[in-house]
Amino acid sequence: MGADRPKRADARRNEEALLEAAAAVFVASGVDAPIRDIAAKAGVGTATIYRHFPTRADLIVAVYRHQVDHLAETGPALLRSADTPYAALARWLEEFVDFVITKQGLAAVLQSADPCYDPLHSYFLERLEPVCVQLLEAAADAGEIRPGQDPYELMRGIGSLCAGATSNPRYDTRRLVRLLIAGLRR
Questions:
Q1: Which of 16, 96, 135, 153 lies 20 to 30 A from 125 at CA?
Q2: Which of 28, 27, 56, 25 is nearest to 38 (CA)?
Q3: Is residue 1 pLDDT above 50, yes or no?
Q4: Any residues with CB less than 8 A from the CB of 165 and at least 6 apart, and which?
Q5: With 0-12 CB in 10 A as exposed, 13-18 as middle and 19+ as buried, what is 88?
Q6: Which residues contact 122 (CB under 8 A, 6 or more apart)?
Q7: DSSP string spanning 48-70?
Q8: Which of 107, 75, 86 is nearest to 149 (CA)?
Q9: How far apart are CA 53 and CA 61, in angstroms?
Q10: In this predicted structure, what is the pLDDT of residue 134?
């Protein structure tokens, strides 16, 4: 019964701080970083982490989902606040690049044989593809980009451009993505 009850605001803030700390440690040190490092960054004890996330896999899944949710919420907010739909699309795709680059350390884990990670790719597409559709359609309706762009193809292309981000210091992922986004213009 208690599991169905919504979390208190302070509990949600604490969990969010813990997830943000875990994400930062994962980016800096990989997903195998000691739990004590995450606890120290979050300002909590290791028991607090284990109380919320009994296994490392639980924590990894929660971090990934949290960041996907944040990115999904960012798209509509950008459409409301940006000067133009194209500006909102470009800014969201920059944040998408940040997300993809920081998740490269998770690639081996997400492609592991552990079935707990299997739903994450579907979750990613279910949450982010509609946002990309909304942004592309708004920019096309405003006459800023060519209509009929495929959101999956665009996100997949950006993901492919991000794959070279860590292997070559001369490879500028963000510059290449800006060129791709500019190519959408009418």
A1: 16
A2: 25
A3: no
A4: 101, 104, 171, 173
A5: buried
A6: none
A7: HHHHH-SSHHHHHHHHHHHHHHH
A8: 86
A9: 10
A10: 98
Cα distance between residue 63 and residue 43, in whole Å: 17
DSSP H/E element including 135: helix 119-141
Nearest to 122 by CA among 64, 70, 177: 64
User: Would you give the distance in Å from CA 12 to the centre of its chain?
Assistant: 19
What the block records as the tokens of 27 is: 């980016």
Q: Rounded to whole angstroms, how far apart are CA atoms 116 and 11? A: 25
pLDDT higher than 70, residue 3:
no
Average pLDDT estimate for 12-29: 86
Q: Determine the 3-state secondary structure of 75 from DSSP.
A: helix
Q: List the structure tokens of 12.
A: 């949600």
What are the C-alpha distances in Å from 132 to residues 68, 115, 121, 124, 161?
Answer: 13, 28, 16, 12, 17
Quote the longest CA-to-CA distance of the chain: 55
Which three-class secondary structure state does DSSP give residue 60? helix
Integer Cα distance of 11 and 131 in angstroms: 28
Q: pTM of the full predicted structure?
A: 0.84
The DSSP output letter for 117 is G
